[in-house]
Design brief:
It holds the Pfam family LCCL. The protein has three helices and 16 strands. The two termini are 24 Å apart. The protein is 14% helix and 33% strand. It has a six-stranded mixed β-sheet. The protein has a six-stranded mixed β-sheet with strand order 9-10-13-16-12-11, covered by helices on one side.
Length: 212
């Protein structure tokens, strides 16, 4: 188990690889040239007025973070989102959801949606997400990686999500989408070997997760 200093060093090492790009509440999808990208929304985007047009599929000039809150992808405290651009729609329907009111609009040439899962690496940990429940897309070949896993079926939140998911039997080594649910800390975590992944035992740890 990593010490606080060791964890911080590991986090700084991983951030360039796995972190999403931080943006402002006012940023829109047309600020980005890529067709698919991962972003980190700040808190408070639902409490101020930022224009959003549509429901579930949004005009490209809609606020990404306000739309993500509207769609229920992130809570009002912010979080990571995966944006995928789409062709324009003939109309966009406004609704009120999760404290955000979107507006209706007619034809607009470009749109975007939120992917159901954020793409991560084999080393990404549950503690990197602010949300209590979220989905991630794990890559292939995580059994060959050295990222640590502590526990069996319920894991410490500094365990590798994707390797824990393989260990729990939720995905194969070919990768896939998994849903993570955070849990309170446990007094102990037991070790076991499953599906090519060896987990370690540990004592008391403050936060945990399971893979649904």
């Amino acid at each position: 188990m990593l010490t606080t200093t060791g964890y911080l060093l590991l986090l700084f090492t991983l951030v360039p690889l796995i972190s999403s790009e931080p943006i402002k509440c006012s940023d829109t999808a047309r600020n980005f040239k890529e067709q698919s990208f991962v972003l980190q929304c700040p808190a408070g985007c639902a409490t101020e007025y930022y224009s959003v047009w549509g429901s579930d599929i949004y005009t490209e000039d809609s606020s990404i973070c306000a739309a993500a809150t509207h769609a229920g992808i992130i809570p009002q405290s912010g979080g990571s989102v995966t944006v995928e651009k789409r062709v324009g729609q003939s109309k966009y329907t406004g609704t009120t959801r999760n404290g955000v009111t979107s507006q209706s609009y007619s034809w607009y040439p470009t749109s975007y949606v939120f992917a159901s899962a954020s793409t991560v690496t084999c080393s990404h940990q549950a503690r990197a997400f602010a949300e209590n429940q979220f989905k991630v897309l794990c890559p292939a070949d995580c059994t060959s990686q050295s990222s640590s896993v502590w526990g069996t079926d319920i894991y410490t939140d500094d365990s590798s999500i994707c390797r824990a998911a393989i260990h729990a039997g939720k995905i194969r080594d070919s990768g896939g989408i998994v849903e993570v649910l955070k849990r309170p800390g446990q007094s102990s975590y037991s070790a076991s070997q499953r599906f090519g992944v060896s987990s370690r035992s540990w004592g008391s740890w403050s936060n945990s997760f399971i893979v649904i």
